[in-house]
Amino acid sequence: RDRELGRLGAAYYQVQTGRDPIVALVAGKSGFGKTAFLEEFAQFADGVVLFGQCSEHELVPHKGLDGVLEGLAAHLATLDEERILELIPNHDAQRLVPLFPELRSVS
């Protein structure tokens, strides 16, 4: 896992040095330790690491984002309104709420 951890660390470093946010896909068969890998990485990250999971049998296309959005909503709930608006302008949040009701509490 050292190679994969290095790649994820490099992506995280890019974000920390002021570049655009990055989405990393960690994929593999069930039981290969993807969740444990991300939990281990999140312990060392100095920032917000959001992750979710999905099933190949899922019928709702964006269901895999539920955990990500719940984590994002929980993180945003810890911030003051000014900081939230810096990250997500109100008009953008309003567009997302119909698709992702989890964000209603922060819009």
Report on this structure.
The protein has five helices and no strands. By secondary structure, it is mainly α. It has helices spanning 2-16, 34-44, 66-76, 81-87, 90-96. It is globular. The model has no long low-confidence stretch (mean pLDDT 81).
Form type: globular
* Global Rg: 15 Å
Q: Average pLDDT, to the nearest integer?
A: 81
Main sheet attributes: strand count, strand direction, barrel closure: none
Low-pLDDT runs: none
Structural class computed from helices and strand pairing:
mainly alpha
Number of strands: 0
Range of strand content: under 5%
Distance N to C terminus: 38 Å
Helical fraction equals 40-55%
Q: What is the string of SSEs from the N terminus onward?
A: HHHHH
Describe what is shown at a glance:
The chain is mostly helical and 107 residues long. The protein has helices at residues 2-16, 34-44, 66-76, 81-87, 90-96.
